[in-house]
Amino acid sequence: MHFEWTQDLKSKTYRDALDIRKEVFVEEQQVPVSIEIDDLEDKTLHLVGYEESVPVATARIYPMENGKYKVQRVAIRKAVREKKYGSILMQEIERHVRELGGKRLFLGAQNHAIGFYEKVGYKICGEEYEEAGIQHHDMDKMLERDDSRLGDEH
Description:
CATH architecture: 3-Layer(aba) Sandwich
Helix content: 25-40%
Radius of gyration: 15 Å
Shape: globular
CATH class: Alpha Beta
Pfam families: Acetyltransf_10
Domain N-acetyltransferase: 4-144
Low-confidence stretches: 149-154
GO molecular function: glucosamine 6-phosphate N-acetyltransferase activity
Keywords: Transferase
Oligomer: single chain
Strand content: 25-35%
Protein name: GNAT family N-acetyltransferase
């Protein structure tokens, strides 16, 4: 899988992200388009994962204050969910956010996905709430400093 990041709402990468989001959230989960496509589109970083040249996974990242980034709109096409692309997508998000100087990732997990996020290091940090007719919990993860790039300098 290879990844592309964009903030350009006219780009093919962004259109690919929207196609996945519409398929997963609007068609599968019946989330209204008016909720799915919101006023943060031009304030977020959009990520698409490609299997060869086919877009199969997406997420968007919203920069907040004090090194905190909110992970949103995580979606994997149904046809490839058994390939564990969600974990690879989350690793890429962490890599990129660390590169941007991020210290903490935050997200609103649909309840059925809590186990997945726990496996990749997130912890519940809030009470249950409903959004778009789906129960959620807020979760977060502190990012460790990546010392692997420092080599043997110390």
